[in-house]
Write a structure and sequence with these properties.
The chain is of the alpha+beta class. The protein contains nine helices and 17 strands. The longest helix has 18 residues.
Length: 355
């Protein structure tokens, strides 16, 4: 057994921003110390380390359940790395995303690993905030499989069984350079891009309120020209598309339909949407147990953002986000509800034993 609150505070005190390699390793080693006596398989990819923990001497071909968590954080202010309690809350950067949750996952693993019928694994990574390609996805590429995965993201005890997929797209327009005093001698690539952007906005108007439909954000516009007196011959934009399950083909087709013939579309990233059928037995067991223990309704919902659960979805493994109560993600007042950590651990323990 571990003291979840103390471990949470100790992890929060470490600045595990994605660029802090030594700190990430220190935090990962702190986790390893809680797991002595088990097989700890270590993976390294592009300098990022992750671990997979299980009781068997050799990794099983397929685990029953994998508990997935990450130690990296969205960077905060210096003062936020000193965790403090105020009322029912524990404040600190990474408290809800997701160092306290990781402490709960470790506790549940230790309590349940010797009692589960199917092999149980604990997966801890250090790169989720930058995409999870070097941790979770790398482990999947190395053959890690399971019947069901719980990513311990904070969900206020509801269950994310759907999450939007991601398309990152770069679009390039080309013009003809000339001196800025003689615009008739050139062709301005930015003006060409502007015409395209107006058509794009008609396809994807900016929502005024929360929507669970697909969305598009123009995240960057740039040109190779850096002077005042020259007509730019190139312009590029970056698009961040978040699509609901089944929308990605339609979205790409619609963008290509309005793309001028002399433009270039470059697909940078295509990450699948998460979509676990509500008839899934693991999913329903988790929901029903949570409702019984908490004595409240639990709902399935679609998340706007993404997590490492999507990497399991890409190989057909049902995976969900499920975690305790918290708020203030990415702000100066990030928090986790302390009582909910105990309840979260209890739900996980009961779920792992019952399946």
């Amino acid at each position: 057994m571990i003291n979840i609150l103390n471990l949470s505070k100790e992890l929060i005190s470490i600045d595990t921003s994605p660029s802090k390699g030594e700190n990430l390793l220190y935090a990962l080693n702190l986790v390893r110390k809680q797991l002595q006596g088990f097989t700890i398989e270590e993976f390294t990819n592009e300098g990022y380390k992750s671990i997979l923990v299980y009781k068997e001497q050799k990794r099983p071909q397929k685990f029953g359940v994998i508990l997935n968590g990450h130690l990296d954080i969205i960077p905060g202010n210096k003062s936020q790395y000193k965790a403090f309690e105020k009322g029912p809350r524990l404040y600190g950067v990474g408290s809800m995303d997701m160092k306290s949750n990781v402490a709960c996952l470790i506790s549940s693993f230790l309590v349940s690993v010797e009692k589960t019928k199917d092999p149980l694994a604990l997966q801890i990574v250090t790169d989720e905030e930058i995409g999870g390609f070097y941790g979770t996805k790398h482990q999947i590429d190395k053959g890690v499989r399971a019947k069901f995965v719980i990513s311990g993201e904070t969900t206020n005890f509801n269950i994310v069984n759907q999450a939007k997929g991601i398309l990152w797209i770069k679009i390039h327009s080309m013009g003809k350079t000339a001196h800025g005093a003689y615009p008739w001698k050139g062709k301005n690539a930015i003006w060409k891009m502007n015409i395209f952007l107006n058509k794009l906005r008609e396809l994807f108007p900016e929502p005024d309120t929360e929507t669970f439909g697909s969305t598009l954000n123009i995240s960057s516009i740039e040109t190779s020209n850096d002077t005042f007196n020259k007509i730019p011959e190139s312009c590029s934009i970056k698009l961040d598309v978040r699509f609901t399950p089944g929308d990605e083909v339609k979205i790409l087709k619609n963008i290509k339909n309005i793309l001028p013939s002399d433009f270039k579309l470059e697909l940078i990233t295509e990450e699948p949407a998460l979509n676990v059928n509500t008839n899934n037995k693991y999913l329903n067991n988790l929901k029903n147990l949570t409702q019984v223990i908490l004595k409240r309704d639990v709902r399935f919902y679609c998340a706007h953002g993404s997590s490492d659960a999507r990497h399991f979805a890409s190989v057909g493994i049902p995976s969900v986000e499920f975690g305790p109560i918290g708020g203030g993600i990415g702000t100066n007042k990030e928090w986790i509800n302390i009582t909910s950590l105990e309840k979260y651990t209890k739900v996980l323990n009961e779920f792992l034993l019952q399946i």
